[in-house]
Amino acid sequence: MKKTFLFLILLPLLTSAQPFKSEPVQNGVRIKFNSRIMGEERTIWIRVPASYNEASSSTQTYPVVYVLDGKSAFFPVTGVVSFMSEEDHVNYQIPEMIVVGVDTENRFRDLTPNASTKQANGEEAKTPEQKLMMSGSGGGEQFLKFLKEEVFTYLEQQYRTNPFRIYIGHSLGGLTATYTFLKHPELFNATISIDPSLWWDGAKYVNEAPALLKNLPADKMRKYYVSVIDSISYGGRLQFHTNAIFNIGKAMGAVNSKNLQYKVDYIPNTDHSSIPMLSWYNGLLYIFDGYHKSHFDYMKDPDLIESHFKEIETKIGLKMNPPQDIFEILVHYLTSPDRYPDPVKARKVLNMALKYYPTSSYFKDKLKALDTKS
């Protein structure tokens, strides 16, 4: 009787319970290939923006973020970029972008521009362990050739890329990102160098920076963001490391060029391992400073949409059409009775949107509804 009574009590719960459904989620693809240049198998990770596969966005192109140490950095960077740019977050601080993570298993080979056995304090390696760790360094130029001829080529053939490229690296990755900015400025429009190992080879590239920066091409805007840890937590033991980073900032500050913008970002309460997260966010915010404009500004004067994106080309160096998401949220505000209805401005925004996204059924239907009411 007790068992029967318990079963009758639980029966409603059992019959109303819904089965849990598991569905896979996707945050990009991992691609492995045999590199002709590197002579080994290499791995890259790729994530396209939320709007990439929408039919109405089929003509839209996207800037590309290349982040080193792909295995560890790819997923958090895609999260930061998604949060800062995509419609689901109603956050348009930066444009939607393709994110490419590049694995760098042999970091001392791939991420060092020249061979060196000098330690971070400038002294030569003494122990067998130190010498072994730094042996084989200096493969940075070959790695850049691999990026340029194989990774860039693949991405630009297979995806709708905008020619605006960003390079992100941490530690030795920050060293090679800075080296690339100085020696190969044509490869990237902007650089995020996170607590970089600029002490490399007696701060070789910090010392060379003043001369290299004088030859920086003036054909387009280039932006450089570098973050530096709170060395107090290390008891001052990393002064050589932080000094090199501050000195690269001084070298850039001495350059008189309207097409060079830089920022040295000292981030308190961080160490070498924790600083990347804030640096990704702060760095992207700096690179795209001036990109975001309030939707209320656009609603007051819809002509600002096109003029603002022309201004972005001058200020940031990014040439792109106004994103579909911006038009959609403005149309929503201007056509919803409980928002800020204004059929005249709504029609103007819709006609502008259809100029860039002529296949969008959303814009067509909204315009048709306005015409029906008028």
Highlighted features:
374 residues, alpha/beta, Rossmann fold, 2 domains, 15% strand
Give the arrangement of secondary structure elements.
Blueprint: H1 2-16, E1 29-35, E2 40-47, E3 62-68, H2 70-85, E4 98-102, H3 107-110, H4 128-134, H5 140-158, E5 161-170, H6 172-183, E6 190-194, H7 200-214, E7 222-228, H8 239-253, E8 260-266, H9 275-287, H10 295-300, H11 304-315, H12 324-335, H13 343-356, H14 361-373
Parallel strand pairs: 3-4, 3-5, 5-6, 6-7, 7-8
Antiparallel strand pairs: 1-2, 2-4
Describe what you observe in this structure:
With 374 residues, this protein is α/β, with parallel strands linked by helices. It folds into two domains: 29-287, Alpha/Beta hydrolase fold, catalytic domain (Rossmann fold); 295-373, no CATH class. It is 46% helix and 15% strand. The protein contains 14 helices and eight strands. It has helices spanning 2-16, 70-85, 107-110, 128-134, 140-158, 172-183, 200-214, 239-253, 275-287, 295-300, 304-315, 324-335, 343-356, 361-373; strands at 29-35, 40-47, 62-68, 98-102, 161-170, 190-194, 222-228, 260-266. Strands 1-2-4-3-5-6-7-8 form an eight-stranded mixed sheet, sandwiched between helices. Strand 3, helix 2 (70-85) and strand 4 (98-102) form a beta-alpha-beta unit. Helix 6 packs parallel to helix 7 (200-214), helix 7 runs parallel beside helix 8 and helix 13 runs antiparallel to helix 14. The termini are far apart.
